[in-house]
Amino acid sequence: MMTSIYPLQGSVQHYDWGGQQFLPELMSRPLGQQPWAELWLGAHPKSPSLVDGNSLAAMISDNCELLLGRTVADRFATLPFLLKVLDVEKMLSIQVHPNLAQARDGFNWESEEGIALDAPNRNYRDANHKPELMVALSDFWLLHGFRTVASATACLRQHPEMTELAERLTMLGMEQFYCEIMLEPDERLFTSMADLAVRLRAEPAPGIDSPDHWFLKAVDSNHGQLEPGMLSIYLLNLVYLSPGQGIFQDAGIPHAYLKGQNIELMANSDNVLRAGLTPKHIDVPELLKIIRTEAVVPEILAGVDLGDNRVGYPAAVEDFALEKIAVQHSRTMYRAARPQPMVVLVMEGAVTINDEHTLGRGESVFVAANTLLTLDIAAGSQLFVASSNLSDC
Predict the structure, then answer these.
(1) Of residues 168, 274, 331, 361, which has the active-site annotation?
(2) In whole angstroms, what is the distance from residue 201 CA to residue 337 CA?
(3) 4-53, pLDDT tens digit by residue?
(4) 361 labelled catalytic
(5) Which regions in the chain score pLDDT beneath 70?
(6) If exposure means fewest CB atoms within 10 Å of the residue's CB, which of 3, 232, 274, 393 is most exposed?
């Protein structure tokens, strides 16, 4: 087997919700005034990683079967996953992602309508689905999936300003209620939210584990302007993850990252439908076509012990698989030969690969399929390995 290991230069997305220290310090870059939101490691055409100054996407296109292996090349024709590191300083938009059929239909329709791929009003920037798996690097807060009607109603009833909305939710059910407030918001909705914000500010600050905390954060981040989507904070599950815990976001599940740093692994896509809390494009009718309003019980992933200091985070998709390797007290050797392509990212410590490449904190490599790896991992190191998840590789 040939050895094919390529040091990567990831691309940074400076979205306004990002922090200013975590990513530049991880990447040993000087601090600046702009926010650093996401580090991308992959071959998405919007912002591919570089190998010696050349696009990883172009390199794979020119050597597809050699770099990806025949099975992955035949199935995907490109690197099927995108690995990210996120620093969430301000809450993200409430959003959903399409399934594969919805993405293809939406992409084809917008292309036929002549909407440019980089147009601000474009919903579907590629024809791929975007399931996501995330693992917390710090204390992390997010919204994930709708509560039961009973739970959401009880949450609203804690506030006298929301009593009428709670009654409407009980009468209509979640799907019809959510469609009505998003498509046809009336003055009563805005009055209720405005009165709630005034009262909450006059009382002791709510704790971070309360939806009230995040409702006030949403109002502040939107410069006091109220949006119907803000009510989602009381309708969705508020989830806390400790470092090392993960969660999977499937197609149609509404979610929003609120605070913290994480590793995120997803299908190779940038398709997002947003419900609000963002200066980016919002298309409520399209979002309502794909959102899943059934109640969700968040499944927090502790990880599966794979042996050899490895923890796996299962996701029922072919596009990607994620492992964390954490070595605490003594140097460790790990050997593997996999038929899938991989991206290896070091978050702490150092690792030497095949006695050729030594990676420190924030450094990464792309590993071609069928490469024999020997990892010499220093004590105190933590790295993540992303790969495809085709069972017949």
Answers:
(1) 274
(2) 57
(3) 999 999 999 999 999 999 999 999 999 888 999 999 999 999 999 999 99
(4) no
(5) 1-3, 391-393
(6) 3
The Cα 252–Cα 241 span in angstroms is 21
| Residues in Cβ contact with 49 at an 8 Å cutoff, skipping those fewer than 6 apart | 8, 9, 10, 11, 40, 41, 42, 43, 55, 56, 366
- Would you state the structure tokens that stand for residue 161, as one six-digit string? 């300003």
Count of Cβ atoms closer than 10 Å to residue 318 Cβ:
18
Element (H, E) at 336: strand 332-338
Asked if 90 and 84 count as a contact pair (C-beta separation under 8 A), the reply is no
Amino acid letter, residue 22? F
Q: What is the CA radius of gyration of the chain?
A: 22
What tokens appear for 222 in the block? Answer: 């939107």
Q: Say how far apart CA 94 and CA 117 lie, in whole Å.
A: 22
Query: Can you state the percent helix, strand and coil of the chain, rounding each to 5?
Result: 30, 30, 40
| Other residues' Cβ atoms within 10 Å of the Cβ of residue 216 | 18
What does the alpha-carbon distance between residue 269 and residue 199 come to, in Å, rounded to a whole number?
41
Bridge partner residues of 142 (DSSP): 239, 257
- What the block records as the tokens of 14 is 């400076």
